[in-house]
RNA sequence: GGGAAUGUAGCUCAGUCGGUAGAGCAGCGGCCUUUUAAGCCGUGGGUCGCGGGUUCGAAUCCCGCCGUUCCCA
């Protein structure tokens, strides 16, 4: 690094060390795509000139001529640099460059003896000095901590990381486009809530100095988006961050990205249809197909997703339980004890059943499966089922053993909603950190009348993990949370 | 929160039984006009995560702390 520092000082003395006048007219990847098929003779007869900017990644100096690779956002291309073409002084300067330096080159495309499309460089200049050395070219950067802390280095040297974030960008774009095409309106609702709501989760707290009040980072945008439905924005969505003050793991980051959408005059079955369609379209856009591999597992997003109720799925994986047992708190408690899950006395049959579901079913649902009819107890914002008021018109989508989306027919009865909030407040008073607050303004909004509506929340990070075949959420978040160095 | 693994040169990694800290790549000085992990000759580079302890002597053994990774809650 000291040597590079000295070189920079030298450059400063010789003139402009960080010039800003260079303009490129081509990208490496575009040249490869456009002229990759042109043979040597054709390139000679019809010379293609190009100006490229990029980072010097490799160099092979063979005396008076050299090869080098530069990388830009589109990819790489090989340069052929010779003393004859540049002159003694400029060639010496080229040899004094370091890996990682950002240079501008101008030259003519040609094909080498081995047939590689390359740029014969006529002129070359240093645009920005790399004072720190890049990781080794062969092994790259493998230390996960450095990859996440110094993502900028990771992105320079790790092709697979660039690909993952490309998939992420394509996925988000496809979801946004799919909703916009269907007439949905994109909204941005508050990230800072006086009353956090919309999910059962522990919030982060912060303080507003001028107002001298506690504010919470949102755990979900749900209640604000539904206020917009009341306001007449009948198809609305938001793609943005949520914050949950809970454990960190390969599947949880304190801030994560969620897509939520709401559609009036639709129910949870319509919502399942759209969920399925959007995920399929996202896979198609990001990967070019719906047949995917996740950690060695073949997953088919092209086939119709299976739909089954919580009860059906629990029965299927627990043959020792009869239908009637699923509503019997005592039997469920015994089952939990058998599964070595501590069962709290305050839990009703619904909460107990869901614990059994999570322990015995969830992990087995590899292929896309909608699980429906969640107990009312664990669904404080979902509409009651008309035939069975103890369950709700709700679903969760499971793929590769994980929850990917959650949706339901929205509860638009303000009196029922007020009662559900009161039950949540009771749970909170009893010590449940994740229970919801009573949101009086939300009840007031519902009292103006919300049309029958369905809504869905889809975890973007988890979808990207699936599509990019990544085992950890940290691989799909550019700057995952780490403790300070 | 519990358990396991891990931290050594810029990067990727060795380091045996406790006895002067190593390799490859990168760097630096040379040679080399079609290479692609280019090659050949020469050469510099360390807070062994941090703090304590045991010992004549600690990268190595013990204790504590910090970071990271994975598993579990």
Write up this protein:
- This protein is an alpha+beta fold.
- 34% of the residues lie in helices and 25% in strands.
- The chain contains 16 helices and 18 strands.
- The strands form 4 sheets. Strands 6-10-11-18-17-16-15-14 form an 8-stranded mixed β-sheet, sandwiched between helices.
- A hairpin with a 2-residue loop joins strand 12 (291-294) and strand 13.
- Helix 8 crosses helix 10 and helix 8 (159-181) crosses helix 16 (460-467).
- The structure holds one RNA strand of 73 nucleotides.
Percent in strands? 15-25%
- Whole-number mean pLDDT: 95
Stretches with pLDDT under 50, minimum 5 residues: none
Q: Give the helix/strand class.
A: alpha+beta
| Number of alpha- plus pi-helical segments | 16
Radius of gyration: 29 Å
In which order are the strands of the major sheet placed? 6-10-11-18-17-16-15-14
Fraction of residues in helix: 25-40%
Our measurement of the CA-to-CA distance between the termini, rounded to an integer number of angstroms, reads: 21 Å
Large-scale geometry: elongated
Question: What can be said about the biggest beta sheet?
Answer: 8 strands, mixed
DSSP strand count: 18
Give a brief rundown of this model.
The protein is α+β, with helices and mostly antiparallel strands and 485 residues long. Helices cover 34% and strands 25% of the residues.
